[in-house]
Amino acid sequence: MKVRAVQLPLQTFILISGFMLWVILSSLMPFIKEDISLTANRQTLVTAIPVILGSILRVPIGYWTNRFGARRITLISFILLLFPVFLISVADSFADLLIGGLFIGISGAIFSAGVTAVPKYYPKERHGFVNGIYGMGNIGTAITTFAAPFIAERLGWQATVQLYLILIAVVLLAAYFLGDKNEPKVTSSLKEQIMSVYKNEKMWFLSLFYFLTFGAFVAFTVYLPNFLVTHYDLAKVDAGLRTAGFIGIATFLRPVGGWLGDKFNSFKILMFVFSGIAVSGILLAFNPSLFVYTLGCLCIAICAGIGNGAIFKLVPLYFTKQAGIVNGIVSAMGGLGGFFPPLVLSYLYEMTGHYAIGYMALSQVASVSLIIVIGLFYQEKLTAANHMLSEMKQAVTGDRTVLKESKSVS
Fold first, then answer.
1. What is the CATH number of the domain that holds 145?
2. pLDDT over 60 at 399, yes or no
3. Model's pTM, two decimal places?
């Protein structure tokens, strides 16, 4: 019982640590570009590249967690992370940053381990809230975004990166001694699990929704520190603080979204979420002042945080036996949603001199998601009504049968 009770705080701590590592390049980019010559596009690519492996690996890690347990997957993942962290700390070229950044993506993929393992210890009616608490591990991005610039100003960015080797050691010790060796396992093959869900339209809709909500969270997290310095001439530490505020709001509202999904219809919550993102995208498209831009970002943070929690309430609700693989696919799509926007924004800015098209695209994707959610909401209501009607017909038929039997006995 004691081992089971510690899994939620343990997995949340592991996720915090993983996400602290995941954004190390974007948080320190204002310092790194002073020592390593990088074009604007290369800066964007370096900050976005960790999202690639962090997204793709979420599918197999979700499956492997179901098969081998979160403890083993965590140990292997963080041992592998020792290499890219050390490489980044001694990097002196674009290639070093690119290779190190790619493999640092393992730290973002670790999300699938916890989100697959934690619900096994709780009843279904608490999955939304529990996944929301676990999802607060996103605060790791805020910790690095806030703390790394302060430390880098005093010790240098290379020494700051090397400090993360200590964090990896702490995670390895915690996972080894506190991880559940007897976590319930699912032994069906990866192919069987994928074949059982790939035709399910709800999985792809949830993937689209998470592509938008978590993608927006990741995209703004990796893009804001450098963008605020270059576009609004903010100090590096000030830009880090503002980005940390964005992350903090989105992170602390994630369990609120999960709780709301437990208490109310998750589709109603998502209607609010996508409406807010659609309006915010339009607002940001008009190249506003820093104050208005801040308001738009805060609205996106609120909507993304609530949306992330509500979406992962729906995954175990619809996919009980395939939760591992579906969690992996949905979260992978969310990660990819954070990779493409910074690159697209950067290239659009070079081509047009502004970001309007990119922000309008964000608004349009949110509008499409809103339409789909409304359709799903009314589809569920119709299904529920048909089910109730079917039960009433069965009850009436049963009453008539009983009445006929009683007459025949008389």
1. 1.20.1250.20
2. no
3. 0.74
